Amino acid sequence: QQPVQSPQAVILREGEDAVINCSSSKALYSVHWYRQKHGEAPVFLMILLKGGEQKGHEKISASFNEKKQQSSLYLTASQLSYSGTYFCGTDVSGGGADGLTFGKGTHLIIQP
Amino acid sequence: DADVTQTPRNRITKTGKRIMLECSQTKGHDRMYWYRQDPGLGLRLIYYSFDVKDINKGEISDGYSVSRQAQAKFSLSLESAIPNQTALYFCATSDGTGGLETQYFGPGTRLLVL
Burial, B72: exposed, middle or buried (Cβ in 10 Å; 0-12, 13-18, 19+)? Predict the structure, then answer.
């Protein structure tokens, strides 16, 4: 079952902050975040494991609430380059044994 | 050179034809994946492979088959293409390091089935 992302779309002015949420009905081992620009491949942003371990870009922050099976991606002081579609991917089995299940995406538009 | 390559990049075919999409990687990863992307539906997993002898069905494997010819090559076949298989197809690889694995996506193959 696909995780649910919210909002579906958001439009910001450059410099504003955004939060993108990802929620699953299943117990998660990890949450993965990717960004895709139009016509391009998705690019890795961050992984968050249950227990608190995480790996990702320095300028990206995210949280993972294990009790609620929810993750949030925080984009602060947004730049034009942040525009794109953000996907969360969830792993329920650990180590990607069953692959990732991706949400439908959140479209982010940053205006100057 | 790109680490994950897909051929062809664009393909138009007719209903009922058999086609193969190919993926190659130079990252040395054991794990490889095929996804399809449809507008508004995100990425959905078709098949994945953790090594040459390990092939697993994903969420939407019906109508597709795969072949892992070598560690570096993973092909997706549509035995008899149908119009609702029109989509953007991505191959991905991952390093599978204890849960902190990153998936690296190829540039995608845009398939149109008439």
Answer: middle
